[in-house]
Amino acid sequence: METSSKENTHFFSNTTILPVDRSSFKSESSASKEKQSCCGGIKIFLGALSFVYFAKALSGSYLKSTITQIERRFDIPSSLVGVIDGSFEIGNLLVIILVSYFGAKLHRPRIIGAGCLIMSAGTFLIAMPQFFMGRYRYERFPSTINSTGSISPCLEDKSQTPLSALEKSHTKINAGCEKEAGSSMWIYVLLGNLLRGIGETPIQPLGIAYIDDYAIEENAALYIGCVQTVAIIGPIFGFLLGSLCAKLYVDIGFVDLDSIMITHKDVQWVGAWWLGYLIAGAISVLAGIPFWFLPKHLPKPESRKDSSTSSEQSKFIIEDNKDQYKSYQQVKIAEMAKGKSLEFLSSLMNFLPSLKNLFGNPVYSLYLCASIIQFNSLIGMVTYKPKYIEQQYGQTSSKTNFVIGLINIPAVAFGIFSGGLIMKKFRINVLGAAKLSLGSSFFGYLLLLSLFAMGCENSDVAGLTVSYYGTKQTTDNEQALFSECNSACLCSKNDWDPICGENGVTYISACLAGCQASNGSGKNTVFFNCSCVRTLESPSQSSSAVVGPCQKGNECPKMFLYFLVVSVITSYTLSVGGTPGYILLLRCIKPHLKSFALGIYTLAIRVLAGIPAPVYFGVAIDTTCMKWGSKRCGGRGACRLYDSSALRYVYLGLTLVLGMVSIFFSVAVLWVLRKRSSPQDETLSANGERGTCGTKSRKDNFANSDHLIQTTYWPEKETRL
Fold this sequence. Notes:
This protein is mainly alpha-helical. Helices cover 61% and strands 4% of the residues. Helix 12 (362-383) packs across helix 20 (612-622) and helix 12 runs antiparallel to helix 21 (644-676). It is globular.
């Protein structure tokens, strides 16, 4: 019996073990399913966020590609275009603090989805003026439009012009004055860009924080890197889209294209700038759709459930088991509300001491000044680079955007990647990062200096860059447009209808060229017996001219090729210092001030560089204009012709001066770091005070920098201002 009872006991003990094994198996199975669900959810979010980054980068770069088109379409100066460009940053700043703080407590994916809708609404609003301000009108002499008979461009007497032509001209002017309010529709472009800035605000802080909260810790940096990579691809497609739309006439689909008398090479040409905004807006709408179906929370990875670092939303109240713990939750809510109030007051009291502590760090203060000035240089240069290429080298808007999108942007992306690769491969410490950032800026601006020698001379324009007798001159005196050869003609100094004489000189209009007759119509119009053209040739030789300005000199295409090569190398060199600069910023401040320091850094760059740089660059560029257009009812319009030499010196000079000043501050940063670093290791810790900056070996310092990039830099930088 004892043996039997022992066997039974052994049997039952074995049977009691079985349920435990099954439950264990069940828990492992559920954990596996939870892991798969987590990975699947975060990857869906990653794909959606990458598409949103692509959409916002595409629309932002497309705006840069249409700067000259908007300027011509609305007949506004470059300084006003700069205000429109800076309105995006203004919109972003209006809501960044509210979104960063309150967005973390709400349904983050849906807030991102709402931001996409707002961003798309702003993009659509930018394109709307095209449908309300009438057809685009360019300046053309009546005989070049739809002429059945020959009309003399040189009107010695108004009676020579058919009555119908004069009536038609006055009718157009009156109609233009009645619709002159349409010239103020650039305000809708400004408001649309402002709205784009508001809609874009939640994408970065909430999207990056969501990934950091729910991704496996070792995968977070990889996921964020994927998002940033896709964001770099966006500008490439943005500029290529700008190239495509610039080739299409602005009123395509509304007018007969065969009746258009200008080509995309003409200075008055305006491409279908609005079409790209409709495409970009539609992409933004599509990009926001997935976020409305994503959950507020994802399952936390097993590796992060026991982590000491909790997600941002886990700090707020999460309701679960309401029926069982309702009374308990009410008490808890009251306690936590009181705690939050005390925490807010405490944070408010610590704000000024933290700010004082931050700016008391000379490394941070000097690097902040260097970054602000350098970003002023880079933002101004990038904003007006398409205009510079068009005016300096006589390239079309289409070709300019194509070159920037296909050559310059990839060079910048490769430079940023190379900077991070160099940091990792050579295990560069903070002092080394400062040297690499300084060297990148120094050699980049040194290469930029060489572009002064790669410009084109002014085109020969009678009355502006050359006299009517062939002598070189540079003047914006309107009286110089008149000469003895056209004194018998009744010409307007405000017209801009350039023709190219057979002597290679451009004349502002056929009337100012003294042309007595014309043949043909539209693009094929030929002017004859041009008295001013004849003054530069033998009197016995017949003088003629064709529609459109003359091409730049023979050396200009070669100079443009040299410019492209140097520009690509310069873009790459300046971009190499981007990653080392961020590492320097992270390493030179105290750990508990990182989020605050990065927030102040981002705010300062946007307020002191992103907003003012396009404005004062535009004002400086406007000073180089030699011939301003005139609006239909009077007033100054957009610039028709720039002084190439003055434009080169102003555009490159302003960029270079700002760059040199930023290098001065970078040298000061390096000097302070050398003074603080110990001679044994020359490294810095995260503490910005003397005696605490150099504590670890180079290898350990680099390893810690990798860790902080993954766990601290990305979420803290993007979520907390």
